[in-house]
Amino acid sequence: MKKVKIMYFAFLKDITGKSMEEMETECSEINCIIDELSNKYGDKFRKYVKEGINGIRVTVLINGSTRNSEIKEGDEIAFLPPPSGGDLRNDKIDILEEIKKFRSKAPPEAGSLVVYVGFVKGIVEGHKV
User: Fold this and answer.
1) What is the pLDDT of residues 30-61, one digit of tens each?
2) Contact, 27 vs 36, CB < 8 A?
3) What is the 3-state secondary structure (H, E, C) of the chain?
4) Which of 58, 55, 52 is nearest to 77 (CA)?
5) Do 6 and 49 belong to one domain?
6) Is residue 122 over pLDDT 70?
7) Where in the sequence is the domain holding 123, given as residue range(s)?
8) Same structural domain, 116 and 55
9) How confident is the model over 65-115, as pLDDT tens digits?
């Protein structure tokens, strides 16, 4: 048996009722873990992780990478639905002024601030994102 840490975000956090759990498993690859978690959390979990939602898929990271499917003792597995939200604006925005406003309202424990302006890819590895 090996112990792994599982992290859930967004709607998967809602389905599981938790943001993180540690799990003991005999699985040696990610599909086995997904099957075990699907047995625990049901068909909705399985469907969202394996098929996605309306063609939008969940990214599964093992120790921060999508390049590996092998599971080892102490691995950290994260289930990340795509980010959503944002705002489409046609007026001019003073980005520096917006950053100043944001920083002035941030609590002392706030970490880094990330600003993105632009478009992202609509299709990654044949899947709509």
Assistant:
1) 999 999 999 999 999 999 999 887 667 789 99
2) yes
3) CEEEEEEECHHHHHHHCCCEEEEEECCCEHHHHHHHHHHHHCHHHHHHHHHCECCECCEEEECCECCCCECCCCCEEEEECCCCCCCCCCCCCCHHHHHHHHHHHCCCCCCCCCCCCCCCCCEECCEEC
4) 58
5) yes
6) no
7) 95-128
8) no
9) 988 899 999 999 999 987 665 565 678 888 899 889 888 888 888 777 777
Residues 27 and 38: their CA atoms lie apart, in Å, by: 14
pLDDT score, position 95: 85
CATH of residue 60: 3.10.20.30
- Residue bearing tokens 């944002």: 86
Taking 70 as the threshold, does the pLDDT of residue 123 lie above it? no
Q: Is residue 60 part of a domain?
A: yes
Q: Do 41 and 74 belong to one domain?
A: yes
Per the domain annotation, does 122 fall within a domain? yes
